[in-house]
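batch_manifest entry 22 of 60
target: DUF4391 domain-containing protein
source organism: Anaerotignum propionicum DSM 1682
requested by: lab member K.T.
priority: normal
notes from requester: please return tokens only, no post-processing; we will run our own comparison against the previous entry in this batch. if the run fails, retry once and flag.
--- input ---
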Amino acid sequence: MFNLPNQYKVGKKIPMKDFIPKDFKPELKKKIKDIVKSVVLADQVMGEDIHSLANEEYNCQVIQFYDFELADIKKAAFVANLYQEIIKSPCVLRLYDSRNEVYSFALKRLNQNDKTQIVVTDKLLTGGYPIAMPSFEKNTLQNELSFDNIKNKTNKVAFYLEIYVRAYILMNDKLYANIKSFLSKPIWYNERTVIEVYKLLYQIAVNKENVQKSISNREKMQLNQEIRQFISELDKI
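--- output ---
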């Protein structure tokens, strides 16, 4: 996936009985079995060519890339949400049926109350791409997320963060006129700047959504004023 070097190739089919938590209720186990036809661990970034990171916030030793074959791509969001919570390591899920595929990403950190557990802070699911037909959007995603295009390989958290934010920009390219300019800017070498850009973009998205829900003109004016401020801050980066 994403032109990862051969050293990270795995290609191991995971038996479904080992991939469904034993404490799930029978109804949920059946639902998963009805939807998921097969799971393959396609790639796994491990070892220290890209350093692991262990501190108070993260314990990232591996990044995993899975292929999920589904009976129906319409169930992709359900499967992605479920397995991004189950899989503790940062991971990319490629979910596909006979016609289309989507990609799932999630930012995770350690649960500060129980550091054997993780907290998923942000999730992202791409739109659907046809499997058999050429797709400009799919090619753009694959090029942007290709291993050689990822600039920050300081450690696995920074590496995955860059993958996530590049995908977020592509999936939200209408948020802000100059959003795609960040793909070619040298921000990626500085993790703090990447986080700053992502937070500003995320706040714009939240405010735009809230503008649609707002009843009073006063609320809308306040939200739009904040959006202009976020854009002004992005323009300075």
